[in-house]
Write a structure and sequence with these properties.
Layout lengths: L1 E6 L3 E10 L15 E11 L4 E8 L25 E8 L3
Antiparallel strand pairs: 1-2, 2-3, 3-4, 4-5
Length: 94
């Protein structure tokens, strides 16, 4: 599920949510995993026709969760990344 808003191609913003129900249909040797929801925000703007800046906050609410297919050690599951920030600059050389 997501939402995107743009302003004549110069500014954009986007929100996305991923909602996962508890995973109970897993192999017998793996435990069931809890459900989770992750919210991401992204945005950016063009400084000029050659340079744009992009920003993102992934896992905005710092949700602790385990993907059912990513359990390397069943007794000590590895959590997915918490809140993280991404900054980028794109330079068009055309």
């Amino acid at each position: 599920m997501g939402w995107r808003q743009t302003d004549a191609g110069k500014i954009w913003a986007e929100a996305a949510a991923r909602i996962v129900h508890k995973q109970s249909r897993v192999p017998e040797n793996l435990p069931k995993t809890n459900g989770f929801r992750v919210i991401d925000l992204r945005g950016g703007f063009k400084l000029n026709h050659k340079v744009s800046v992009n920003l993102a906050v992934k896992n905005l609410t710092d949700e602790s969760f385990v993907e059912s297919y990513n359990q390397v050690n069943v007794d000590n599951p590895v959590l997915e990344p918490g809140r993280n920030f991404i900054f980028g600059v794109t330079i068009n050389t055309d």
